[in-house]
Amino acid sequence: MDQKSNIIGDFVRRKRIAANLEQQDLAAKAGIASSTLSRIENGPTVPTAAVLIKVAKALDADLMELFAELGLVTGRSLPELQEYLTVKYGCSQEMAAHLARHVEADLAL
């Protein structure tokens, strides 16, 4: 398991436990397979942006907290993340695109 998958898995697990949800409950709420959630939490799976956003929304989690834990600095555009940032944070398309560029390469989504 690489460091990114470990950080992401730990983040998801902490948020799930804080929300008092079992893995299968969170998976159902996020619309993903329980096995996918298990692989995210236990590694070595690094989720796609779409899956990460589904899980974050189901947990009402702040992805910026996760990005900070990952120490993200640079990257390239990622449409799903850009849309999420625009909707979740109400930021402009320009700002969302800028943030997305700084996330994707480091997260390897």
From TrEMBL:
HTH cro/C1-type domain segment(s): 12-66
CDD domains cross-referenced by the UniProt entry: HTH_XRE
Domain of life: Bacteria
InterPro entries assigned: Cro/C1-type_HTH, Lambda_DNA-bd_dom_sf, TransReg_Diox_bact_type
PROSITE patterns named among the record's database cross-references: HTH_CROC1
Keywords for the protein's UniProt record, in alphabetical order: DNA-binding
PANTHER family: HTH-TYPE TRANSCRIPTIONAL REGULATOR (PTHR46797), METHYLPHOSPHONATE SYNTHASE (PTHR46797:SF1)
Protein name, entry field: Helix-turn-helix domain-containing protein
Taxonomic lineage from the root: Bacteria, Bacillati, Actinomycetota, Actinomycetes, Pseudonocardiales
